[in-house]
Amino acid sequence: MKIDDFLISIIDGSIFISLLFSIHLLCSYHPYHRIFPLIMGNISFLFLAIYINLFILKPNSSLSLILRESTSNSIISILYFYPFLFIFITFVIVKLFFRKRPEDPLLKLLD
User: Fold this and answer.
1) Which pLDDT score, from 0 to 100, does residue 1 have?
2) Is the pTM higher than 0.70?
3) I want to staple 12 with a disulfide (CB 3.0 to 4.6 A). Which of 46, 48, 70, 85 is the partner?
4) Rounded (5°) CA angle 54-58-61
5) Most confidently modeled of 1-5, 19-23, 75-79, 106-110?
6) pLDDT digits (tens, 9 = 90+) for 20-76
7) Do residues 16 and 71 make contact, with C-beta atoms less than 8 angstroms apart?
8) Is 80 exposed, middle or buried (0-12, 13-18, 19+ CB in 10 A)?
9) Chain-centroid distance, C-alpha 12
10) Whether the Cβ atoms of residue 65 and residue 24 lie closer than 8 Å to each other
C-alpha cells in the first residue's frame, strides 16, 4: 500500500463525513440554530477535500467520478468495521445481562 492510497482513503472518508454532516445540518434545522457558519465551514472543508482529491491525487478523474468513488470507498470502509462494532455491542449486552441489579427500596414497600 502506497502513501497515495492511504491519503486517498483518508480524503474519501473526510468527503463522506462532510456529506453526512451536511445532511445532518439540513435535517436538524430549527429557528434558533445558527446554521450558516457551520454550513460554510463544512462546504469549505468539502471543497478542499475534493480539490486535493481531484487535482493533486487523481488529476485524470472527473468530479462526479471522484464523489462516487469517495462515497463508495467510505461505505465499504464502514462495512469493514461492522464486525468489530458487533463484537463490541455483544460484549456490552453480555456485561449488562450479568450485572447485578441494585435493590430498590420501593419494591420492598409493595410486600
Assistant:
1) 59
2) no
3) 70
4) 75
5) 19-23
6) 888 888 888 888 888 888 889 888 988 888 788 777 777 787 878 877 877 787 778
7) yes
8) exposed
9) 12
10) no
pLDDT at 98: 87
Q: Averaged over 63-91, what is the pLDDT?
A: 83
Q: Tell me the CA distances in angstroms from 20 to 38, 46, 58, one per residue in order.
A: 13, 11, 23
Please state, in angstroms and as integers, the Cα–Cα distance from residue 78 to each residue in 35, 83, 87, 88, following that order: 27, 10, 15, 15
> What would the 3-class secondary structure string for the chain be?
CCHHHHHHHHHHHHHHHHHHHHHHHHHCCCCCCCCHHHHHHHHHHHHHHHHHHHHHHCCCCCHHHHHHHHHHHHHHHHHHHHHHHHHHHHHHHHHHHCCCCCCCHHHHHHC
Using an 8 Å Cβ cutoff, are 43 and 34 in contact?
no
pLDDT at residue 94 greater than cutoff 90: yes
Domain definitions of the chain by residue range: 3-110
